[in-house]
Amino acid sequence: MVVFKKPKALTDAVMTYCPGCTHGIIHRLVAEAIDELDIMGDTIGVAPVGCSVMAYDFFNVDMVQAAHGRAPAVATGIKRADPSKIVFTYQGDGDLAAIGTAETVHSAARGENITIIFVNNAIYGMTGGQMAPTTLPGMVTQTSPYGRDVEKAGYPVKVCELLQNVDGAAYIERVSVNNIKNINAAKKAILKAFKYQTEGKGFSLVEVLSTCPTNWGVSPEKSLEWLGENMIPYFPLRCYKDKFAQEGDK
Amino acid sequence: MSEKVLMKGNEAIAEAAVMAGCRHYFGYPITPQTEIAAYMSKRMPQVDGVFLQAESEIAAINMVIGVSAAGKRAMTSSSSPGISLKSEGFSYLAGCDLPAFIVNVQRGGPGLGGIQPSQSDYWQATRASGHGDFRKIVLAPASVQEMVSLTFKGFDLADKYRMTVLLLSDGTIGQMMEPVSLEMGDVTKYDKPWAVTGTKGARKPNIVNSLFLLPEVLEQTNIERYERYKSIEKTEVMYEEYMMDDAELCVVAFGIAARVSKNAIKAAREKGIKAGMIRPITLWPFPKDALADAAHRVKAFVSAELSMGQMIDDVELAIRCKRPVILCSRAGGMIPTPENVLAALDEAGKIGG
Amino acid sequence: MNTKQVLFAGFGGQGILFTGKFLAYQGLMSGREVSWLPSYGPEMRGGTANCSVILSDSPIGSPIVSNPDILLAMNLPSLDKYENCTVSGGQIFVDSSLIERKVKRTDVESFYIPATRLASDENLGGLANMIILGKMLRHSGLMRFEEIAPTMAKVVSAKRKNLYELNLKAIELGYNHGE
Q: Could you tell me the pTM of the whole model?
């Protein structure tokens, strides 16, 4: 009996992520959702700029690599070209919440029937650990060497809190992958986001709190603890909006 | 022949795009091209197409990238400041080898500039419209009829060569009305096996991508692209010769400047000056051979432009500086008068030969 | 006719562009080469507006009219600006209810019609442009009386019958003015 196998929606390519990085888990959750909904042949993904720039090599579906921050606009084009396709973007915090803020907010405002997987690890990973729009107050990065001073560098952007007030958004939830319980919840949320799209319910975004052991400068194990102790209090895990929530749902 | 209708240049572009099978338009308002967006907002729903007013010019060109990656015809349009914002998209379109049709109805610059007609985006259009080694096919209409025919042809060229075709117009041709025939013939369909349409489990995933981290691989994509460019330079050059048979002086002008120059050439001929014109219709590929050939026959050239002098570089390169080239230039939204061009022809007559 | 260059000039909101459009359609319907070029931009919001129309038997070079054969001036700044540009032997039409002075040039034909006052007297508010156009069409010989109605039918959609009739009435009023 096979107890553990690779989802069909992932290719055999060796992932380029650092050891201990949770991108791999999140990729897997996305691929499992695609498998479970049996939509692989109709799914088109959009890769961002950032650590997951080469996501096009890892998902076993048609992929487009977008310019920095523009993935939601590219996804809009793909979806409008053929609304029967399932279109998702996979973006990091710099891509989605800094350079691509406008594209994010407006694709939500239009209620584009697409799914955004937003990976927030509070740092620019690929360029080597600079301050991100989601870097926590006081957090030391290469470009906030004295810790993020909110007086000078402003406050972290809370994407789910922002988007819950956008009328066009259908489903907004923040999850984490720092422990098994949270991973299971994340799986559910990602599945729901894709399912909503197949049902034509509109814009969905799942923010996944993720680690960056390399640039945080801690071990993978410690990074999971750090996420739980520091990120979750600032970025609370919950469903921020669900237009189609059933009675009795939390 | 079909009945002619009176149309504004901007509206003619939009209707021709619909005729060319474009069903996806993304734009953002800016003078003097907003009529294209307004026309499309009315027209697209009538043909089951998509009109979307994007949140920015950047978003608009990325939506074009999405549709084009999905294998369908798409366009966006703007005027000079908005085209600067689209520069990023131009580069990605080239790197991904995606077809796209884009319109620039130019206004005076730099910066916010003004809203009157200009041709001062010539360099941007033919040279540096984004990072990296790449070209765009640049078409320069000089009448509302050419707004139609070059838009129709532009979509075809974009698909044929998997690249961006830029229609480089200006506020005058965009705003003016002239009678046009909308009879354009059939649309050629191109196979797009590279498009992202879902694998249906029947093929390997298609990847539309411009990232190549291995320099030897990236170099190869550039070399292949440039081979395509070379063949375009051989086969797709378009220009008009006007009174060149016995010409001793040659005006080079495109778009509205060519219209003004025709008046000047007529006036020059009345004064006994043997002037003619070569009007580039493709600014890239530039009609180099036609100009080099003319350099054997004429004494001097006049480059007439609505800029401080941009196309003049290409004229001098094409003729290898064999003959003097006089610049006739108005900028910032001003249009040269026929008298301006005539004065330049007088000067050219004195210097040349 | 060979080539006629016409310049319509006045305030934004006087219907300058529409007046030019009417003439352009007439040119189209009679099989001539035509160009219509508006001034654009802030003019739409109440500044000065002008519109170049060229009718010709041969292809038109520049669509910009800087030396009109015919000038229609609907305010003083327009007459001040374009009077001296008008070609010798050309025609200048003046809305004499808005422009108090006479044309200074003696080498052009001048015509005066109190178009704005006539429009308000005849309950044709806002159609002074069509009244002065009617006057111009007659004296320039650009259009025969019987061509006016079919051209109007092309320019104003049949769905807006009221607008069609008012415009027609205005243009005919100008056409027959002073006869």
A: 0.92
